[in-house]
Design brief:
The chain is an alpha/beta fold and 260 residues long. It contains 11 helices and 8 strands.
């Protein structure tokens, strides 16, 4: 199991004061030195955290592969092709969202996605698609020419948190999941089974499988148990833990939890 450490939230803190502190490159080095198999960053169209110069510097100086998440907007794809990361992960993106919500709509945007994949592949950049864990999405990802899928684990993570944490008692409670414990338990099991079936189908189609979104120190073991998933991309929970324990220890602990 490979651990991709997403360092976007270090840049979020930096941009809050618009100064170069904390230094994103220091975060890169610490993550690499303490077990990260990959560095993941997301260049958003509104540049709310990672900036163009960060992309160039991180790819230039990283000792491990860099996974660059991006929208299918042509201008962004051009930047990715210019910088040549180890992989590009195409994700949906809305300006008003706090974080990425749901997987790519592969059917309404198929022409644009297929065009972006071809352009990236022509630049010798493998492509992963960030998708919901459905059999239809696995088949369509293969048809569009992707080499990999990243299963969106957000719904699983929300169910797990509503069942096993203080989230229901906070201002961030997921209203549509304010259900009985029995209902949450049943839906959580369904979600895990969907992820298992999607991962198995993807491998049978010849796709590599990653997973990410909302994964943390409490729920990650459920994804580690799915043999077909070979990579996890985790960011917010690692950076949040680092506030109290340091980034080195936060990465080491997550690396330990992701080993089979």
């Amino acid at each position: 199991m490979k651990l991709g450490v997403n360092i976007d939230h270090v840049a979020v803190l930096r941009e809050a004061r618009e100064i170069n502190d904390p230094d994103i490159l220091q975060a890169l080095y610490v993550a690499c030195q303490n077990g990260a198999d990959q560095i993941t960053i997301h260049l958003r169209e509104d540049r709310r955290h990672i900036q163009d110069i960060d992309v160039t510097n991180i790819i230039s100086f990283s000792k491990v592969p860099v996974n660059l998440e991006c929208a299918i907007e042509p201008g962004i794809i051009d930047i990715v092709c210019k910088n040549k990361p180890h992989r590009a992960t195409l994700v949906p993106e809305k300006r008003q969202e706090v974080t990425t919500e749901g997987g790519l709509d592969l059917f309404s945007n198929s022409d644009a996605i297929e065009s972006a994949i071809k352009k990236l592949n022509d630049a010798e950049i493998p492509v992963s698609l960030f998708v919901d864990p459905t059999l239809e999405a696995m088949k369509k990802s293969k048809e569009l020419g992707a080499q990999m899928v990243e299963l969106h684990t957000g719904h699983f993570a929300n169910l797990f948190a509503m069942l096993n944490s203080s989230l229901p008692y906070s201002n961030h409670s997921v209203k549509e999941l304010e259900l009985s414990r029995a209902e949450l338990t049943q839906q959580l099991q369904v979600s895990i089974e969907e992820l298992k079936k999607a991962a198995k189908a993807a491998v049978e189609l010849g796709l590599e499988v990653a997973a990410g979104h909302g994964l943390n120190y409490h729920n990650v073991n459920e994804m580690v148990a799915i043999d077909e998933i070979t990579e996890l991309n985790i960011g917010q929970s690692i950076i949040a833990r680092s506030v109290f324990s340091g980034l080195d220890n936060a990465v080491k602990e997550m690396k330990r939890l992701t080993q089979r």
